[in-house]
């Protein structure tokens, strides 16, 4: 499985961005796809995740501003980010594993990672 993110960039505070993550060699069996971010000097933190049944979970700070979704036919995961602030500046990563766990926001349980896409909010 290979994950490739895109859609990052620079945006002014209050703006929006939509990140994409294309998953190659994926399958329909139970899985969990997540978005994480990591700012310089900080730990990688979970943003949101989506289960194979379509259920979604969010970090408390992301709920209401960020929306995770997927297009199964295209094996693509999305993260719509609205009302961005400078505190959202980070490298954003998509991640995948073959089953959902309640510890969805723990980076260590994911088996596959993309290379990341930089988001800068000024």
Q: Secondary-structure map with pairings?
A:
Blueprint: E1 2-6, E2 9-11, E3 17-24, E4 32-38, E5 45-51, E6 56-58, E7 66-71, E8 76-81, E9 90-97, E10 112-113, E11 117-121
Parallel strand pairs: 2-11
Antiparallel strand pairs: 1-3, 3-8, 4-5, 4-9, 5-6, 7-8, 9-10, 9-11
One letter per element, helices H and strands E, the order comes to: EEEEEEEEEEE
Number of strands: 11
| Distance N to C terminus | 34 Å
Average residue-wise pLDDT: 94
Q: With helices defined by DSSP (H or I, 4 residues minimum), what is the helix count?
A: 0
User: Which band does the percent of strand residues land in?
Assistant: over 45%
Query: Structural class of the secondary structure composition?
Result: mainly beta
The helical percent reads under 10%
**Radius of gyration, whole Å:** 13 Å
Main sheet overview: 7 strands, mixed
Give the overall form. Answer: globular
Low-confidence sequence ranges: none
């Amino acid at each position: 499985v290979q994950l490739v993110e895109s859609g990052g960039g620079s945006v002014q505070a209050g703006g929006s961005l939509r990140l994409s993550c294309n998953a190659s060699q994926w399958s329909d069996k139970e899985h969990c796809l997540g978005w994480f971010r990591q700012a310089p000097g900080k730990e990688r933190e979970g943003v949101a995740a989506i289960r194979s049944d379509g259920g979604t979970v969010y970090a408390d700070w992301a709920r209401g501003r960020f929306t995770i979704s997927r297009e199964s036919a295209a094996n693509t995961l999305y993260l719509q980010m609205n009302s961005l602030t400078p505190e959202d500046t980070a490298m954003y990563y998509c991640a995948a594993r073959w089953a959902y766990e309640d510890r969805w926001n723990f980076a260590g349980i994911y088996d596959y990672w993309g290379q990341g896409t930089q988001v800068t909010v000024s």
